[in-house]
Amino acid sequence: MNTKYDGPIVDAHQHFWALARRHHPWLAPGVRVPHRYGDYEAIKRDYLPADYRRDAAAHDVVATVYVEAEWDPATPLDETRFVTALAREHGLPNAMAAQAWLDAADVAEVLAAQSRFELVRSVRHKPAHAHASSGNTLMSNGRWRDGYAQLAQYGLHFELQTPWHHLREAAALARDFPDTMLIVNHAGVPGNRTASTLHGWREALAPLAARPNTVVKVSGLCEAGQPWSVEANRDVLGTLHELFGAQRLMFGSNFPVDGLFLSLDALIDGFKTLVSAWSAAEQRAFFHDTATRVYRPVDLSNPSARTPR
């Protein structure tokens, strides 16, 4: 008999923003950048800890991980200061994936500065699309890889968001830098749910699964023009469970972005249904233990408060 999880949750992938500050170019009025979800105008509104707590009220979310949100790249440390201030005032978030452009001239200084913040556990720099001349992304660029090589020095993980057909480059990255944990965002971005796409996505993920320094965030699984549903994601969860095991998977809401498709309550409840056939220990790993191990959440607002262990 399947039993739905009712324990503590660490949301390993979410965002906050205060748009009056105009620090997110893609969220500015009148701006529309290409987005895999299509029209994202509905999320051009403030989203802060009180909003998240309201949306998650039906579930026992004990900690969250803020992921950089395309803040103005000229001032990446200002995003970290903004997030740290939120954490001190509101108790959320409890860990952070900060912005750092790995091919920038000042990457060493930025990584060193980011690593000194109490919440920062990782950095993200999307490697963009393949260059027409080589078919490769920045993951194969020497200057970018030189920046990546510095992550271990500062004890930082790397957050990878890239379409699934670039994941073989990611497997080479994990192989070449075994001391750096590579966190695959949005389940490797499978895209649509056609049989051919899911087959290609699985084949691309398999080499990453063979690398022990990789984990996967099961987040951002919505599709433009399609409603989110349990059935649409059942094969995705099954494949991830088979390849990585629950101890290398973690839940992420991608809120407020996935709020374009459904409520946070419905999203969490849907994932609880998707993993309900897993053992109790596996469900807890997926919703809590993996993220706790990877991100070591803290409560900056109350150092004596209970934090996940």
TrEMBL record:
This is TIM-barrel fold metal-dependent hydrolase. Belongs to the metallo-dependent hydrolases superfamily. The keyword Hydrolase applies. The keyword Cytoplasm does not apply. Keywords: Hydrolase. One of its GO terms (molecular function) is hydrolase activity. Residues 10-296 form the Amidohydrolase-related domain. InterPro entries: Amidohydro-rel (IPR006680), Metal_Hydrolase (IPR032466), Metallo-dep_Lactonases (IPR052350).
